[in-house]
Specification:
Length: about 500
């Protein structure tokens, strides 16, 4: 759709709204409101699909057998993409738990939510979530698993809430809050593998009689440091060779092309002693992969329940993750930085009534797009403040006007690993990143250098591209409204 069509077709959209939408769309921040107001309403009231949103914990985009991973087998999660759509170029906009989870619930950048880091988890996030909107539209809503977002979402009057608002501390004696409506219980300790307990609770909730559609957010705790496995997977990957990333030994080569602040960040394998620190690529990968397999077990149980209820095809299933994860690239673990392993996430949707089966798309989609997508599937109009765009039409027909550039924006410093603030722009072929407090830059041709080995910044032969990307970064950053007043992240995090 062209913007001039948006202007003429949309009722009730003020000129100011339109001008904002036009400005943002031109700069890669796609405003769904104008588009959705005239084209959504996929589900009339009474025929709303059930919704399941599986939001992984640091699940890398490439760690699905559907994405061709040579070691990890994820048959249940693969099914979502194989029987629906899988986006090969999906990204988060701030690769850190609480900011990403706050963005996915609101459809807004960290810069606009004010949820900038993992600190201040107990402070409110006074922006409507898409789940609040679904509840108003007649849905039973539930969140089970790891909340880890600002305010923990416990204030949202869920029909059912069984969650923990931080990274899991003890996989075998996990703590959760359980509540219904405005009645939230006190924190209790449970005994058993954390995500097994979460899925028991989810299934019990699904089995309750109801005459409304449901929306279940299954947000697993696994895999997250300290990476403990369920008993049934203790032997998984014994004797399996784990390849080492080609950039793992960059430290021995003097960190070619890497910014000083990146080199100094405390996120290198076998370098820093902390309770969540990782000791070797082999240990990290095997425990991380086994965690993803444990999650796949849970997804299998969930699907078996939906099928037993005859609701599998009446349920729109969305699968993504809060961020990716370094498994030894540049010797790193964890996330935060704007390199590909950290910012790439899975993105799959299965809903046979609306989404064509078996398509794989390369368009760049973002965590911000999930809320508008789920709302469109439910026939609910997105908020005009949402900064993503529904992926429904893109999945089925493509969209020549889809975004070609987007903003990445990381804030938390000082923090757990002392990764400096940075922001950058990612296009379909390139990225540039600016560590603006120390004025260091990196620039990569990700189309030809997907492992980001060759920093092109300030190379004379790339001056024109560099100028173009710097201008693009300024454009996408300025297009996102800065939150004024209200909550901001002020406290450095104590965990990650
Ligand atoms: Ca996370």
């Amino acid at each position: 759709m062209r913007l001039d069509e948006t202007a003429t077709k949309t009722d009730g959209l003020s000129r100011r709204d339109f001008m904002q939408a036009a400005s943002l769309a031109a700069t890669g921040v796609l405003m769904p409101n104008a588009h959705a107001a005239v084209e959504a309403a996929a589900a009339p009231k009474g025929k709303q699909p059930n919704i399941v949103f599986i939001y992984g914990e640091g699940h890398r985009a490439d760690c699905l057998s559907a994405a061709g991973h040579p070691i990890v087998k994820t048959p249940h999660q693969d099914r979502i993409g194989n029987e629906g759509v899988r986006f090969e170029n999906a990204f988060c906009t701030n690769a850190l738990c609480a900011p990403a989870r706050s963005s996915v619930l609101t459809g807004m950048y960290s810069k606009s939510t004010g949820a900038l880091g993992n600190g201040d988890l107990d402070k409110p996030l006074d922006v409507p979530y898409f789940t609040d909107m679904l509840r108003s539209a007649g849905y039973d809503i539930a969140l089970v698993g790891k909340a880890h977002c600002r305010a923990g979402a416990a204030d949202r009057n869920w029909d059912y809430y069984f969650a923990f608002n931080d990274a899991v501390a003890d996989y075998y004696e996990p703590k959760f809050f359980e509540g219904r409506g405005s009645q939230m219980g006190s924190e209790k300790t449970y005994y058993g593998y954390a995500d097994d307990i979460v899925m028991d609770k989810a299934i019990a909730w699904l089995q309750e009689p109801r005459d409304k559609p449901f929306c279940l957010l299954f947000w697993p705790m696994t895999p997250h440091a300290p990476f403990y496995r369920p008993r049934r997977h203790l032997d998984l990957y014994n004797g399996v060779a784990i390849p080492k990333p080609s950039t793992f030994d960059d430290d021995l080569k003097g960190w070619p092309g890497r910014s000083k602040c990146v080199i100094e960040a405390k996120n290198k394998i076998g370098t820093h002693v902390n309770p969540d620190g990782t000791r070797s690529v082999e240990e990290l990968c095997k425990d991380y992969y086994a965690g993803l397999v444990a999650v796949d077990d849970m997804v299998g149980r969930l699907f078996a329940q939906l099928e037993a209820m005859g609701k599998m095809d009446d349920t729109a299933i969305v699968h993504s993750s809060d961020h990716g994860y370094f498994l030894g690239e540049f010797r790193m673990f964890d996330k935060r930085l704007m390199y590909e392993p950290s910012i790439r996430v899975p993105m799959m949707i299965r809903y046979p009534k609306t989404i064509r089966a078996g398509s794989v798309r390369g368009d760049m989609v973002l965590d911000l797009d999930i809320a508008p997508t789920i709302l469109e599937l439910a026939g609910v109009k997105p908020r005009k403040e949402m900064q993503g765009k529904s992926m429904v039409r893109l999945a089925n027909e493509g969209d020549a006007h889809w975004r070609k550039e987007w903003l990445y924006d990381y804030y938390e410093y000082p923090g757990y690993e002392d990764v400096r603030q940075h922001r950058g722009v990612r296009t379909e072929t390139h990225k540039i990143m600016h560590f603006y407090t120390v004025d260091e830059w990196e620039m990569y041709d990700v189309a030809n250098d997907p492992e980001e080995k060759d920093n092109l910044y300030n190379r004379p032969e790339h001056t024109a591209k560099q100028r173009e990307l710097v201008a693009s970064l300024e454009r996408v950053f300025n297009a996102v409204p800065q939150r004024q007043g209200g909550p901001t992240a002020t406290e450095p995090s104590k965990s990650f």
